[in-house]
Amino acid sequence: xxxxxxxxxxxxxxxxxxxxxxxxxxxxxxxxxxxxxxxxxxxxxxxxxxxxxxxxxxxxxxxxxxxxxxxxxxxxxxxxxxxxxxxxxxxxxxxxxxxxxxxxxxxxxxxxxxxxxxxxxxxxxxxxxxxxxxxxxxxxxxxxxxxxxxxxxxxxxxxxxxxxxxxxxxxxxxxxxxxxxxxxxxxxxxxxxxxxxxxxxxxxxxxxxxxxxxxxxxxxxxxxxxxxxxxxxxxxxxxxxxxxxxxxxxxxxxxxxxxxxxxxxxxxxxxxxxxxxxxxxxxxxxxx
Amino acid sequence: xxxxxxxxxxxxxxxxxxxxxxxxxxxxxxxxxxxxxxxxxxxxxxxxxxxxxxxxxxxxxxxxxxxxxxxxxxxxxxxxxxxxxxxxxxxxxxxxxxxxxxxxxxxxxxxxxxxxxxxxxxxxxxxxxxxxxxxxxxxxxxxxxxxxxxxxxxxxxxxxxxxxxxxxxxxxxxxxxxxxxxxxxxxxxxxxxxxxxxxxxxxxxxxxxxxxxxxxxxxxxxxxxxxxxxxxxxxxxxxxxxxxxxxxxxxxxxxxxxxxxxxxxxxxxxxxxxxxxxxxxxxxxxxxxxxxxxxxxxxxxxxxxxxxxxxxxxxxxxxxxxxxxxxxxxxxxxxxxxxxxxxxxxxxxxxxxxxxxxxxxxxxxxxxxxxxxxxxxxxxxxxxxxx
Lengths: 288, 387
Ligand SMILES: Cc1cc2nc3c(=O)[nH]c(=O)nc-3n(C[C@H](O)[C@H](O)[C@H](O)COP(=O)(O)OP(=O)(O)OC[C@H]3O[C@@H](n4cnc5c(N)ncnc54)[C@H](O)[C@@H]3O)c2cc1C
Ligand code: FES
Ligand code: FES
Fold this sequence. Notes:
- The complex is a heterodimer of chains A (288) and B (387).
- Chain A has 2 domains: 49-162, Uridine Diphospho-n-acetylenolpyruvylglucosamine Reductase, domain 3, CATH 3.30.465; 168-286, CO dehydrogenase flavoprotein, C-terminal domain (Enolase-like, domain 1).
- Helices cover 37% and strands 20% of the residues of chain A.
- Chain A contains 13 helices and 10 strands.
- In chain A, strands 3-4-7-5-6 form a 5-stranded antiparallel β-sheet. In chain A, strands 8-9-10 form a 3-stranded antiparallel β-sheet, sandwiched between helices. In chain A, strands 1-2 form a two-stranded parallel sheet.
- In chain A, a hairpin with a 7-residue loop joins strand 8 (168-174) and strand 9.
- The longest helix of chain A is centred in the C-terminal third of the chain and has 21 residues, at 266-286.
- The termini of chain A are far apart.
- Chain B has helices at 50-57, 102-105, 113-120, 130-143, 149-155, 167-196, 215-219, 228-231, 265-272; strands at 27-34, 37-45, 76-79, 82-85, 98-100.
- Chain B is globular.
- In chain B, helix 3 crosses helix 6 (167-196).
- Chain B has a 5-stranded mixed β-sheet with strand order 2-1-5-3-4, with helices on both faces.
- The termini of chain B are far apart.
- Among the domains of chain B are: 27-105, Ubiquitin-like (UB roll), CATH 3.10.20.30; 111-200, Orthogonal Bundle (DNA polymerase, domain 1), CATH 1.10.150.
- Classes of the chains: A alpha+beta (288), B alpha+beta (387).
- Chains A and B meet through helix 2, helix 4, helix 5, helix 6 and strand 8 of A and strand 4 of B.
- Residues 124-129, 161-164 of chain B line the site of one FE2/S2 (inorganic) cluster.
């Protein structure tokens, strides 16, 4: 089934509740090929052109279509708008996957290593979920943490992202130089209007984590009215602070006996180092 | 494919698995447009990937199945002008799309310049990655007629090759780009000369014969990166009516073509080109690339006739008739057309690889005009590893 409009698509899902919506199919076919999923019917979203672009809304918000591909988000016009999301899209897999993999699919899959997720979390984005005759607005964090999940028959249609007109950075550590899923990632955005720094750490936990205390602390270290300079020592301390907040001592520890030993596990030490370097660099670049 | 009654479905990690009875394998019939030809697919399970349908139902075995997980790129094909992993496309949803496979590259009968260059540059060893690589190189050069090495590496980063080390492929990309550019120049020169000679009635005829039809005009344009829609150059495809009789004939003997798992030997024997016990045939599998064995490319899509591919003998090698076989050169001799410069003898001062993090010379992070995080593999100078 290849509906050409959003209305047709939600009607099709209402008519066949067992049908699975398919955007770029990069996550879906991986599950089908591995035998983890047997769809009863497919509703292809690829022909819904309205979801493949974005528009602007009053109050400095960009409304992004769920069907925006990673390849599309990587292009300069989009990158000028939401640089961190473009950075995340640029590194989300090989070209073959980024050409078709979508923003909506990335959010609904909600994989721990989903690269757009820390960015949307740091931006405090929200999404629109539509069903036949109704729609609702849910903050991305509620969706990801399972507080308010996608219900059967619902389509993710729009992603609402505030336009901050300030530097934002996404950095990702991977196991190899080619395209790979993140072992840790950091998204950091500046919100000069509110004199805030917002940061989210991806891939170290099932959902992106916000080190709220570290954010508040570092925002107080920045000279917002001047050249937005910061003491390099504060940048380094911010990195450590973020890492300690997001990686628990018991990270990677397998049994209870391991967890009671003193100090952080070896895996935690290593991951903290990665996260702290990413966070330090992200802040340094944002304030450069 | 059979359903085992004792089998239990795994819990759906996405929480979206509909409650389906195990017996229910929903099927669909649709028509795929592959390399310009309409190919009907009947009663196919909706979960079949485009890769599976191309290979097993339509007999187009060019795209290879390396992983079925989108990691290796061996299955790369173009769908609506976009390079995608065929294993991750639900075939049933590609019904309205224009699909181009590696078989379409050599549709004119001979190897395309991409295939030729890959073969000549030593970019083929076991060859498993080669069809996907050829599609990726083809796709890159359609969008960007003068890729830098970094751009080429980025474009090919989704195609794994376990044999060649990629240098041959990168050399091939440059040699194709050079070749196409000089073809264009030549064509322009010839056209100019023809104009000057006021022979206005025959300028087009002077073009080199083997020039790919669609490329020259496009090749003079600057690299287009701004809009995907602009990349998709519609190459007019031959109409479906040109399909010779029997072209839609599926392989095998199952109702939908394949399925039964039993190949019809009557159909396949001639395809394999095993000579029918004729004593005067010297070779069973003619060596590839020898001058006396002119290259017969995989027939263009739709030219399949039950009773045999036209004059197909031996395997599809991807070699054109031009390269004469040359023995492996002595150690250290650079191969023509490759960037290989031999292991230096002991004691030769070694030109060190630039330190990790030093950007390759003259390669500003391509396509990243706004100073953002560059694509894979490029490191910024401030990415110190100091602390
Ligand atoms: C080789 C490879 C490498 C990858 N690397 C990365 C990586 O580095 N980083 C990363 O983040 N991801 C990566 N991915 C994962 C994947 O590409 C992304 O998650 C992508 O964004 C998924 O989008 P899609 O459109 O393909 O989703 P699909 O596979 O089409 O859909 C995924 C799920 O979401 C549902 N869905 C999709 N769209 C909607 C919608 N609009 N409304 C409701 N439900 C919907 C589908 O029903 C399905 O259950 C990789 C994948 C592969 C195969
Ligand atoms: S088989 Fe499709 S990418 Fe490996
Ligand atoms: S030639 Fe063997 S994998 Fe590339």
